[in-house]
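Recap for those who missed Tuesday's class. We walked through two folding examples back to back. For each one, the amino acid string is listed first and its predicted structure tokens come directly after. Nothing is annotated here on purpose, so try labeling regions yourself before you check the end of the notes.
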Amino acid sequence: MIVLGLSCACLAVALAAWISQRLFYEAAQRYQSSFTEQARTELSDLFVFVDLTHLWPALVCGAIGVTLFCWLLTQSVVFALSLGALSVFLPRVALTSALRRRQKRFDLQLPELLLALSGSLRAGASLTFALKSIVQDAATPLSQEFGLVLREQRMGLSFAQTLENLYERMPSESVELVTTMLIVGMHSGGSLAELLERLCSNLCARQHLEGKIEVMTSQGKMQAWIMGALPLVLLLVLSQIDPVSIHLLFTTTQGQGVLLTVCVLETLGVFCLRRILAIHV
């Protein structure tokens, strides 16, 4: 009877391990495909064209290296596995952040583009010729995006379609206003230069308001980062004052649980504060 019970227990453990392995493998495959596709899309939006064949193996090797390094440093399996798992998600966050910064730079360049475009139209130039002359001297990412617009137009796409493609690559309210204004102005006629000047004034006023909000909320954002970093600084100080007690946090199950709870709560706190202070105009 005991042998039968042990056999059933071993079988149950083996079955649970097999199911866990299958679920982990399927989840890893789904994350690999989604991450590779997102990286390909966002890197192409950043005008970075590289071969992504070895991206996932390099990411896995990096995560394993981070896990081993943290384990050798702290002798904590839970802490090492947590940081190793976190390192897998960091590249996705970095790509999204880089894309967001590029979008912000592009929006800041739009009023200058509209003002120069309005001046060229008043001088008698066509819209396409004015865009071409402005793009040649513009900085990135404006020159890259509108250069692609002109190349797509030379390949046979309509001007409206190229502007819609621009909005798909740079989905912001400012880009939507600019593309809609250009499309409507091309089809309805009228004084497009005057409309562009008005839109330029509106965008400048909006960016000025966003800058004021950014300045007014910068103190709160800095406080969020300081509060998030304070436990780490305190941990380093205490590790120098009482290393024996701090060592228990990394070597005992209770201590590792406390560290994991603190990390989760700190991350949620910083995220909530930044969401509260993220005011959209």
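Example two. Treat it independently of the first, because the proteins are unrelated.
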Amino acid sequence: MPANRSRTERWRESLRQVYERGGGLEVAVMRGPGDEGGAVDLVWRVRVLGLSEREIVVERPGALGRCVEVPPGTGMTCAMSIGQNRWMFASRVVRSTPGPRGSLVLAMPEGVERCPRRNFNRVSTVGLRLPQVECWPLLDPSSTAVAETANQSAMRAALSGGPHGAIDTIAAAALPVVGPVFPASLVNVGGGGAGLLISKEHAGAVDGTRLYWFRVHLTPELPLPLSMTGRVVHHHLDHEQNVAAGVAFEFALNPAHRDFVAEQIERFSARVSAASARRAA
């Protein structure tokens, strides 16, 4: 029997291995059939806190010091990885524990499915659509405060139904002094940072010694891209020579922007969770 097939059939052992090593799962609120098109999934990296025959206990998703509310009954798309092997499964929230160190209790799945190497975010039953990110190397970090303030003004105007022409003008100006842009995908978020996947064609653009300006597209819940500054703190090549990069968000030059970014992440998550809860009702 091939090793990967054997591991899939013994997936509970793999899950326990993740737990015993202090590892985590990637989880996202499950989208409905009507959410196709431009809708994307925000994936959270959460640590596994406990296991039983029927339940998986994980950290509550959160970013920048704020936990995200996920109501009981919400469908979840989950993934676990060991080395280059990755499995996905569907679950639902059974209950949650409030508080800053709260947890989510997920229903144990009946089975998992191994992801193909060339499409590691989709199997036959569930899938993830990763948000796209525009990345620029920052040439003048001091120019980010003005751009962040412009991003806040444009986002608030768009959320309040302001005139599109004025919003587009503000959004176009919301760019600091930067170098050439390159694309990435937002693999996951958690704590004070995120994971990005950058195609091998743009691998040379990754430099751990400098700051970057990011625009994250979280449609349709957020009408405009969410902009922020960050630094690549670690990176490595995957099996296809693409770059997997860990990014730490930076707010030292404009601390107030931290609350704005956290607020928009909460807004996105609340809207997706509410839609999922309505479908489950």
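Answers for example two:
The mean pLDDT is 85.
The first strand starts at residue 24 and ends at 29.
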